[in-house]
Amino acid sequence: MTDPRLEGLRRDAPDLRLKTDAADLEHYGRDWTRRWTPAPLAIALPASIEEVQAIVRWANVHRVALVPSGGRTGLSGGAVAAQGELVISLERMNRVLAFDPADRTLTVQPGIALEAVHNAAREHGLTYPVDFAARGSCSIGGNIATNAGGIRVIRYGNTREWITGLKLVTGSGELLDLNRGLVKNSSGYDLRHLAIGSEGTLGVVVEATLRLTDPPPPTNVMLLALPSFDVLMKVFTAFRERLQLEAFEFFTDHALRHVLAHGAQAPFEQTHPYYVVTEFAIGDEAREAAAMAAFEDCMEHGWVSDGVISQSDAQAAQLWRLREGISESLAPRKPYKNDVSVRISAMPAFLEETQALLGGAYPHFEVVWFGHIGDGNLHINVLKPEDVSDADFVAQCEQVTKLLAASLQRHGGSISAEHGIGLVKKAYLGSTRSAAEIAVMRGIKQVLDPNGLMNPGKLFD
């Protein structure tokens, strides 16, 4: 039976598309986490800003909680609807609205896929440089909600650096036009940056103006085999000093084994314990010589055991697949994920402490490490054994996450580098933010979402 409250929503927004079938509720009610059973009230698919406003105003009248939804590729439970919430899927709001050649900006709706933004920028001879493996399915609205990073943060920064303007429907249904694409704007608080990374708890992003830039210079990709974990930061320093790095990504032999089993091609005859895939600018003999000099220097010091450099775009794609295919290859094992960051200068000490912590805590579990070492971001994936129940596995992992959060606090790090807090990391927010900061966050939410309807239970209760 249809909930009678939805009849009022249909009257307020007669053209609004609503879904209530069980399969749709399950599909739209969850993200890539699988720890909560989806149970939304219904799925609303607005096609305009006005329909989003109508939904939010209706929700305030009926006190119905709302969960904004993009591509639902998140890993922290930020898009989960398990308590009778109305999901607002932005997938129909997926168009490019405008390109401005003078400002070099692209204005888009929030439901557009990241890959479609890349393609649209390319049509104008420019690039939107934020990039990661889920580019074909994640949405710009979701990227903004989590301040997504990805594989090129070392060169271009996070999503935040590329948003020049936002339109936000607040928790009370008001439409805010934030920053309006200005390069300079010192007229008070920049509310745009409050919305970025807020995980849908302050409102719904309904439009974004993205800053574009020149396409990157010609690049090469190099895969390096490392003999030990200890030399990782030495290799990074050697390459960063000589080259303009576009990316510097690390993964372990465990990660490589899963990707190879998923269909990738083995890069070396022998296996090695650790690997780095790095992309760097070339284009002249001096830069190419610098790349070889960095490689040879690392070989002479014993920091690198082997290496291969791409000779074509196809080979570069093959090398990148070894890194970008990790998450997909691990998915059948239901990994428990930790996405953490520390300052690059703190990375060696943190890595040493964390290795010892995880080695002692998970002696019978397979732990797969990979991450964006160049910006201090590590992904730690603990794989569930077949003979351990989901509940027992999560309980054991969460005990270790408490210890990991304490280690991050000692090293001045963050329990969530780029996936958000959501439901998964909510208990550990205090390891990254002080009590005073969290109190300020609550106050901001109270102003923009006075009835607490926007993605409740995410970030904090």
TrEMBL record:
<dbReference type="InterPro" id="IPR016166">
    <property type="entry name" value="FAD-bd_PCMH"/>
</dbReference>
<dbReference type="InterPro" id="IPR036318">
    <property type="entry name" value="FAD-bd_PCMH-like_sf"/>
</dbReference>
<comment type="similarity">
    <text>Belongs to the FAD-binding oxidoreductase/transferase type 4 family.</text>
</comment>
<dbReference type="Pfam" id="PF01565">
    <property type="entry name" value="FAD_binding_4"/>
</dbReference>
<keyword id="KW-0560">Oxidoreductase</keyword>
<protein>
    <submittedName>
        <fullName>FAD-binding oxidoreductase</fullName>
    </submittedName>
</protein>
<dbReference type="InterPro" id="IPR004113">
    <property type="entry name" value="FAD-bd_oxidored_4_C"/>
</dbReference>
<keyword id="KW-0274">FAD</keyword>
<keyword id="KW-0285">Flavoprotein</keyword>
<dbReference type="Pfam" id="PF02913">
    <property type="entry name" value="FAD-oxidase_C"/>
</dbReference>
<feature type="domain" description="FAD-binding PCMH-type">
    <location>
        <begin position="36"/>
        <end position="215"/>
    </location>
</feature>
<dbReference type="InterPro" id="IPR016171">
    <property type="entry name" value="Vanillyl_alc_oxidase_C-sub2"/>
</dbReference>
<dbReference type="InterPro" id="IPR051264">
    <property type="entry name" value="FAD-oxidored/transferase_4"/>
</dbReference>
<dbReference type="InterPro" id="IPR016164">
    <property type="entry name" value="FAD-linked_Oxase-like_C"/>
</dbReference>
<dbReference type="InterPro" id="IPR016169">
    <property type="entry name" value="FAD-bd_PCMH_sub2"/>
</dbReference>
<dbReference type="InterPro" id="IPR006094">
    <property type="entry name" value="Oxid_FAD_bind_N"/>
</dbReference>
